[in-house]
Amino acid sequence: MDLAELLKLFRGISNGGWDPTENNFHLYTLVLAAQTLHSVGYAMGIQRDQKLAEANGSNDPKAAVVAYFGDGASSEGDVHESMVFAASYNAPVVFFCQNNHWAISVPTEVQTKVPLFNRAKGYGFPGIRVDGNDVIAVHAVTEWALEHAREGRGPVLIEAYTYRVGAHTTADDPTKYRESAEEISWRGKDPLDRLEKYLRNEGLADEAFFEQVRVDGDKLAAHVRSTTQGLQGPNFRESFAGVYAEPHPLVAEELAWFEEYSAGFEGNEEEGAGN
Which pLDDT score, from 0 to 100, does residue 12 have? Predict the structure, then answer.
């Protein structure tokens, strides 16, 4: 997927921006932890489709689903419910929890009294903790978990033990709830620096390779910035028209109110009004 495509959703100018089936990547949910429920439901659908396909003599590769969420989201009821269903139906799903130690301003030890990966025992499926700052280890564990799920052995919970060095959001000030020494100690475990050192030490990449990576990175960054800045908001009437398949009196009433509201802004332009 083009990284810039993702930002249409975050800019609020699209309900998605990409075809989940074509890209094998589901649309984001901005409701905390809801993606775990969606993932289990999709995995259960895959499970049933595969049984039908096998009954008809198909030898197509088996599939599984990965659901990514943070340590903060792990405290949501949706995660508990999704793991109950995943275990009950032996669904082919991998729960990948990115434990970065801080759910906004709440440390992990306040959210759980045991390591997060141990929660899997309560549901009856494997849980494993991996060094989340070790790219190769994360890849290996994820590959193992996906194979486990694909082969019908049920769900897996991965806890990637990592750290959020920066702020949670642009409005967040980490200095109000944690010590700078903690951040400094984790900076030395930066996953990109570690991977680069490994590749260099093992003779797997030379300076020309890393220079090309830098060039490609700069090119991608420039593309994302220019594309995002050039995104045009939809005509707000199109947004109202997409609420229901057929005209709806309440939507028409709200559209009329919004048109009146938007007209009150100086320099109002029809195409971008109300964005």
Answer: 80
Residues 44, 45, 49, 55: what is their CA dihedral angle, to the nearest 10 degrees?
A: 40
**What are the tens digits of pLDDT across the range 230-262?**
988 778 888 888 889 999 999 999 999 999 998
Residue 149: which residues within 8 A CB-CB, separation 6 or more? 43, 64, 65, 91, 92, 93, 94, 155, 156
Cβ(162)–Cβ(98) below 8 Å: yes
In CATH, the number for domain 31-189 is 3.40.50.970
pLDDT value at residue 163: 97
Nearest to 36 by CA among 92, 93, 104: 93
Instruction: State the average pLDDT over residues 53-65.
Output: 91
Domain ranges, ordered by start, for the chain: 31-189, 190-231, 234-275
Tell me the residue length of the chain: 275
Query: Do residues 128 and 85 make contact, with C-beta atoms less than 8 angstroms apart?
Result: no
